[in-house]
Amino acid sequence: MTAFISIEGLRHFYEGRQVLDIDSLAIGEGEILAVVGPNGSGKSTLLRIINLLEKPSSAEITYWNGKKLTGLDRGERKELAGQMAMIFQEPILFKRSVKANISYGLKIRGVARHEVDRRASQMLERLDMSDFASREALTLSGGEAQKVTLGRAMVLEPRLLLMDEPLASLDTPTRKLVRRDIARLVKDMGVTAVYVSHDYQEVLEIADKLAIIFAGKVLQVGKPSEVFSRPASDVVAEFLGAENLLDGEVADCTEGLARVRIQGVELQAPCEMPAGSTVKVLIHPEDILIMMDGPEKSSARNSLPAQITGVSIIGALAKIGLDCGFPLIAYVTLASSEELMLEAGKKITAVIKATSIHVM
Amino acid sequence: MGDIWNGLVQAFKLIIHLDPYVMKITLFTLFVCGIATFFGMLLGIPLGSALAVYRFRGRRLLITLVNAGMGLPPVVVGLFVYLFLKRRGPLGFLNWLYTPTAIIIAEIVLAMPLIAGITLAALQNQNPKIRLQAKSLGAGEVRSIITLLRETRISLIAAVIAGFGAIISEVGAAMMVGGNLTLNSQPYTRTLTTAIVLEVSKGESETAIALGIILLAITVLLVWLMTLLQQGSLLNYPTRIARSLVSRRKKEEAA
């Protein structure tokens, strides 16, 4: 697939400090790329550079029309900028009616008045906000306001939509609703989008591709599920909130299956590293099965006798703390936790498939 | 007390009978101050905007000058404009001294920094991301600033009110560079304030009071209109009327 946008050798300095150092990053047409990283990792700057609002110290960006960032003339710059729209963390609305806000970009583009009116009304309908048309925009709640900024951007039918932490200023229930609207609208309209966030959970459902960015560098790019289950490094794993990130040592390794020793306990996992290597071991808490009556025969390579150290409830899940020679966290549904009467002190067996263990 | 009462009665008579002398002064004052406020806006709003939006060398110095300009004593402004325009002054060849043009120039110098200063303060109070948001939706440099100004219109109207109020009520500069002239052979340069000073010194308190009332009334009326504009109700009247007409027609159609 030829890239819709490709970024090569992006270096950017701000007040003598390097804030971006990206060798290459590409976005395919119709793709939603989530750029996730902690605050201050350069995500917003990246968006502003793509959006031509800021000039990078050096970079080559090739846009969808084949135009390159270095060598854009005024007209081309304006044309490209006109095909992009951006929404920000705080919903920035203009002091006018909701409909006038939605119409803003269309009016700038010199679209005929009745056409502006038609498209703005249509967008309000899509957002399920027709009743808000004549409301003064500054009287809207945070969630409504962010929906309007989304509509104001999408009504332009941009080739590229840039979103800079669009949910960060909202409360949790509102966040869900607005996220749903964003996902729906962006996917329905088939718009290519870059979504920047500090919270990977926010983007899991929306993103086709996930880029983890740290201190200006892209550490990993891939499908969210891939990145999540196979982080490229412990930094990525830790950032993704990995509960079970353990230090281990490869005892031996044959035909891609290794025995990895963690605090004296051995686990079998796929691995290509030679014996004696120190490694990080990642086990997702959802991938740990809890069994009550000893290890029955199963295809799982790892059965560890363990004792429950604590149970805490997170929504519909129970988070089970285990001691199996090393501390481990497992997630089970609240229902099965109650059925099995899991509680601190109880002895169980933790079963982990070798393929659920990620060694890096 | 009797004098004041008599004065008031006479003043109302002058106003009600549209006394030509009083009317001419009033219209002239409105003309001069209107043009000066207009040019004050034309220069002051872009200057204030530029100072608020851009960072450049000398910006701080300019801001200091603008802020100082907001409190300029009219007499001193009059003096400087006089020195420039007098026959042997650098601009003496223009022959503008003791003409309406001279008054207008002096009033622009007074109004412009007020308007620029208030514009600057108002724009700096706005969220700097407004302009970024406008640009990201396709606005160019100028358009993004116009959008920002629109967000600040309440303060902008306040700036214009302040500018107009300052120059319609000042007497020092208008007197010094205008000369308070009414003779047919000379340009007419008598404003409400300069006339009041003259009438009082002649002992004609009725005329002075009439002019004073007019000055007050104009100021209050214009400030009131601008306040309506500022608070949005003036602009809302036509839409409200239109809306009620539409809804009435709909009801009639339904009936």
UniProtKB/TrEMBL annotation, chain A:
Q: Does the keyword Ligase apply?
A: no
Could you mention a single GO BP entry for this protein?
molybdate ion transport
Name the Pfam families on file: ABC_tran, TOBE
Annotated GO molecular function terms are: ATP binding; ATP hydrolysis activity
Domain ABC transporter, which positions? Answer: 5-240
Q: Which stretches make up the Mop domain?
A: 297-360
Q: Which SMART domains match?
A: AAA
Name the domain of life: Bacteria
Transcription regulation: is it a keyword of this entry?
no
Gene3D superfamilies named in the record: 2.40.50.100, P-loop containing nucleotide triphosphate hydrolases (3.40.50.300)
What SUPFAM superfamilies does the entry give?
Answer: MOP-like (SSF50331), P-loop containing nucleoside triphosphate hydrolases (SSF52540)
**Entry keyword set:** ATP-binding, Molybdenum, Nucleotide-binding, Transport
What this protein is called in its record is ABC transporter ATP-binding protein
User: What is the scientific name of the source organism?
Assistant: Candidatus Solincola sediminis
The organism's lineage is: Bacteria, Bacillati, Actinomycetota, Candidatus Geothermincolia, Candidatus Geothermincolales
UniProtKB/TrEMBL annotation, chain B:
Q: Which UniProt keywords apply?
A: Membrane, Transmembrane, Transmembrane helix, Transport
* Localization: Cell membrane; Membrane
TM stretches of this protein: 27-54, 61-85, 97-123, 154-177, 208-229
Note the InterPro entries from the entry: ABC_perm_TupB-like, MetI-like, MetI-like_sf
Answer yes or no on keyword Membrane.
yes
Where is the ABC transmembrane type-1 domain positioned along the sequence? Answer: 26-226
Identify one Gene Ontology CC term for this UniProt entry.
plasma membrane
Q: Name one GO biological process term.
A: transmembrane transport
The highest taxon in the source lineage is Bacteria
PROSITE patterns, sorted: ABC_TM1 (PS50928)
Give the bilayer topology: Multi-pass membrane protein
Respond yes or no to whether keyword Transport is given for this record. Answer: yes
Record's family?
Belongs to the binding-protein-dependent transport system permease family.
Question: Would you tell me the protein name for this molecule?
Answer: ABC transmembrane type-1 domain-containing protein
